[in-house]
Design brief:
The chain is mainly alpha-helical and 346 residues long. It has 14 helices and seven strands.
Length: 346
């Protein structure tokens, strides 16, 4: 009986190791693909980076053709909306791009009809269940948003950017505490904010209303700054690291650290990368027994913690975040950009 138990245990341990090795191989391949995207100027594709990241979590089971087709179907509806809804009172040379941005916003936040009483597209909804993906990491995925019509402040702006990239318009990511939103620009209105969770164009006062954005965090660039294309792709590296941690059940891996380091190479003040790096270093430190290595890890921890403090970061409680998020929905008149009200509601 004892021998049988030993054999069973060894088989289970071997099977588990093989599974972890397979996950590591899969994720390292995804990492190299994203690194190639970042290193080659002619291959920058945020959509591709998102697919690579989500596909790794699904053990290469996500069909890229189906993923792309779902996006193309949405773009077809957006183009149809443009052809039937022309801008008025907008005599500027960027009118075509502005109309494309409006079509994507309309697609994501409102019902679109082929003709009266014949809807062909419905607005995406905010998923309040596990909105940080703590229980189910796929809650953060664009593929989940496309499949279910529900997403969060991570997947919704990501899909918005993919759609604007594909349709030939510009949209830029920007951060607030625990929150990702969109910045855009038009010749008529200047820079404006686009918020998908509330289908609104909030003024900067709402972005700052949480109380966790200081002058210091704006100057340091961790909040309210627009991201470059490479910085946007760097977000996928941290998503990749989080996905790996959940699949491999490890928070102290070298893989996590190399994802953080590559993300910080292109986005040095990316606060989420710094926070994840500090957590992973701490997990390494707690498990390490070699005094010399432990000392080196402590020095790296100190350096990372120092960088976080210098950027002015403060953790926002979930209750405050949710209250801040609902404030826009409850008080749109107070925080809405009046210049853009009704612009895309044809």
């Amino acid at each position: 009986m004892k021998l049988l138990f030993s054999i069973s245990f060894l088989f289970f341990a071997g099977s588990l190791k093989a599974q972890i090795d397979s996950i590591a191989l899969n994720y390292n391949h995804a990492f190299e693909q994203i690194r190639t995207l970042l290193e080659r100027e002619d291959s920058l594709s945020f959509k591709k980076a998102v697919f690579i990241t989500e596909n790794a979590y699904f053990n290469n089971g996500l069909n890229e053709a189906v993923f792309n087709q779902a996006i193309q179907e949405k773009l077809g509806i957006a183009r149809l909306w443009i052809s039937n809804n022309h801008l008025t009172d907008y005599a500027f040379k960027d009118s075509t791009e502005f109309a494309k941005n409006g079509a994507v916003f309309k697609l994501m936040t409102d019902t679109i009809f082929l003709f009266k009483e014949a809807p062909i597209s419905f607005p995406y909804q905010y998923d309040f269940d596990d909105f940080f993906g703590e229980q189910d990491w796929t809650k953060m995925f664009v593929s989940k948003l496309l499949a279910t019509g529900k997403g969060n402040c991570h997947s919704m702006p990501m899909l918005y950017k993919i759609l604007t990239d594909e349709i030939g318009a510009n949209a830029y990511f920007s951060f607030a505490p625990n929150h990702l939103y969109i910045k855009q620009k038009s010749l008529k209105h200047g820079w404006y904010n686009t918020e998908l969770t509330s289908a609104a164009f909030p003024i900067d006062a709402w972005i700052m209303a949480s109380g966790y954005i200081s002058r210091e965090t704006i100057i340091s660039g961790i909040y309210m700054d627009k991201l470059t294309e490479k910085q946007s792709i760097s977000l996928c590296l941290i998503d990749l690291a989080h996905g790996y941690q959940r699949k491999a059940k490890k928070n102290d891996s070298d893989f996590t650290l190399k994802c953080c380091d590559l993300a910080l190479k292109y986005y040095p003040n990316y606060i989420n990368a710094l926070l994840l790096r500090s957590e992973s270093l701490k997990a390494h430190f707690d498990k390490e027994e070699n005094p010399k290595i432990k000392q080196e890890l402590f020095a790296q921890m100190e350096h990372t913690y120092s960088a976080i403090v210098k950027l002015g970061y403060r953790e926002i409680p979930k209750s405050v975040y949710l209250e801040w998020l609902s404030e826009l929905a409850d008080n749109k008149d107070k925080y809405q950009n009046k210049k853009l009200i009704g612009t895309f509601n044809h």
